[in-house]
Amino acid sequence: MTNHPAYQPDPILARAGVGLKADHYKTILNTKPDIGWFEVHPENYMGDGGSPHAYLSAIREDYPLSMHGVGMSLGGVDPLDDDHLSRFASLVERYQPALVSEHLAWATHRGDFLNDLLPLPLTQEALDVMAKHVDQMQSVLKRQVLVENPSTYLSFEAEVMEEPEFLISLVDQTGCGLLLDVNNVFVSACNHGFDPVAYIDAIPAELIGEVHVAGHAVEEINGAQLHIDDHGSAVVDDVWSLFGRLIDRVGPKPTLVEWDTNVPAWGVLKAEADKADVLLRQNDMVLGRRHDDVIPA
Amino acid sequence: MSSLRDFQNAFGSTVRGAPTVPAGVCAAYPIPLERRIDVYRNNVHSSLIDSLEQAFPVVLQLVGQEFFRATAREYLRDHMPTCGTLVGFGDGMPEFLDAFPPVSSLPYLSDVARLELLWLRSYHAADDIVLAPDEIANVPQECLPDVKFILHPSLKALQSAYPVSSIWQAHQPGHRPLATHIGEGGEAVLLLRSNLSVVVHKVGAGTVSFVDALRSGEPFGVAAAAALNAENDFDLSQILHLLLSGGGFTRLIRS
């Protein structure tokens, strides 16, 4: 197990990946499962050394990575935290992930970090803030960042754009890519009453660098359902069906199966990733592509 | 809504617990706004309290989950994370517990939290080289007192007025909690990473003085004298063996 390998930035396969969990480190190293790649939250690797880095280094020798930030607060009105950005950049430099992503959200309040993806009113001012911060993040990381659509529970009277239009404008202004989270589209659509199919269909194929699917919870309130994005269960059929529709149109994309709370045994998680792989391969056949068709890093 | 800054200031206060709904927020009927905002309130608090549970598993067992989560919620009022990673979050917990009246009947609790914080710091500490035992063997006996040792970043030490080592050990997975008499006197621990795992060694007061003196840059002779001063039967050769075989030193500097 080496601690500072000089990785080449691997291309990532248009296959399914899963989040890398400490509980699964040893199983992965011992069994070398056939899986396309692993996703890590860089915030969990911002310690100086020890076990997290040793295991991530060893696993990185065998698999490409997607580095998925949750703490940058790109939509926050305050300047990005230079220390956080620099820690993120060191991890990108060290582990050479194939994909790097963050969120259309904010998380900072009067100097504190709230550790959640808070909702951003889709206004021109918010677009300007996001564009400035995505620009800064890409220039410090020296690479493209994918921006993910969030799950939301609220709307805002001042909003002037729908989310797909906002995200496409952000791509136009910054050259970023998009991480299309199909579960988030479904959750938000249920919570706000919009059509998830129209949202999915509105995102141009070439802007999508990665796709997420996940499970979510449902709470009954006043005879209606509030869908809550908790990544705590298997992907529901409605989300698989939206995912199938998406890849029918855009072709296979690197797809993360997210399961971050009530994390199941490795075999259960792997089986969920295999389901995504089956759908991705079916679409390879339809589109006449090789299933190892790579997306340039 | 006036500006994005006004909204974020107001919404931030709301999710942190203020009972107000920021202007301009709306949602589809029939689920009330409050219930929707609660999703964010819950995400913020439960994720951070979960993180504190993971950081302080022994404190959690000592006070029980319900009490721990209520305590953690109080802690969050003035100790939110200040950066985008939760590595290091919770480092104000020992001092918070010292000043938190509901746990004043558990005077050892803050030192257990100190031990758990040191465990985390050792776990995340930087990787470094390990001093080969040969290097110390090559130092002429008469020069040894003047040698300075650089400690491995994962080496930590704690002296407590309470039996923290016994309490901590009894609450590790696979151990059955034992009756520990807090009046039995203080204990000291030394933490050191071995093959990526943090090992907690029960040691005497002299070892803590010895390690603290070396850490502050004192030479070997001064550190050994400090150790003997703190503990009459301090066993220097035993501690040196532990530190050398466990990778507690990275380098030595001969004057």
Question: What does this 3D model show about the protein?
Answer:
- The complex is a heterodimer of chains A (297) and B (255).
- Chain A has 297 residues and is an alpha/beta fold.
- Chain A has a single domain, classed as TIM Barrel (Alpha-Beta Barrel), CATH 3.20.20.150.
- Chain A contains 9 helices and 15 strands.
- In chain A, strands 2-3-4-5-8-10-11-14 form an 8-stranded parallel β-barrel, surrounded by 4 helices. Chain A has a two-stranded antiparallel sheet with strand order 1-15.
- In chain A, strand 6 and strand 7 form a beta hairpin.
- In chain A, helix 1 runs parallel beside helix 2, helix 4 packs across helix 5 and helix 8 runs parallel beside helix 9.
- Chain A is globular and about 55 Å long.
- The N terminus of chain A is likely disordered.
- The mean pLDDT of chain B is 95.
- In chain B, strand 4 and strand 5 form a beta hairpin.
- Chain B has 255 residues and is mainly α.
- Chain B has 11 helices and 6 strands.
- In chain B, the strands form 2 sheets. A 3-stranded antiparallel sheet of chain B has the order 3-4-5, sandwiched between helices.
- Chain B is elongated.
- In chain B, 48% of the residues lie in helices and 11% in strands.
- Chain B has 2 domains: 106 residues, no CATH class; 147 residues.
- At the A-B interface, helix 2, helix 3, strand 6, strand 7 and helix 4 of A face helix 1, strand 1, helix 2 and helix 6 of B.
- Strand 9 of chain A pairs antiparallel with strand 1 of chain B.
